[in-house]
Automatic annotation (TrEMBL):
This is Uncharacterized protein. It comes from Bradyrhizobium daqingense.
Length: 63
């Protein structure tokens, strides 16, 4: 299993997730995704879902 993944939403790079103890840590590549910065996710797919929810305005669900 890879140690990092690029997260993209609507052809825009949201950030990367890097495997750490307990999951994958999110690092934002755009200020639009700063709300997810440093959050820990179980896997890359979960981080991608959170980024999609954030970009679609569902902030409560993304955090």
């Amino acid at each position: 299993m890879p140690d990092s993944y690029i997260i993209e939403v609507n052809s825009q790079t949201a950030g990367i997730v890097v495997r750490s103890q307990g999951g994958y840590c999110f690092f934002a590549s755009s200020h639009r995704f700063n709300r997810l910065e440093g959050q820990l996710f179980r896997n890359a797919r979960e981080a991608e879902r959170a980024a999609r929810k954030l970009i679609n305005g569902d902030v409560k669900e993304a955090a």
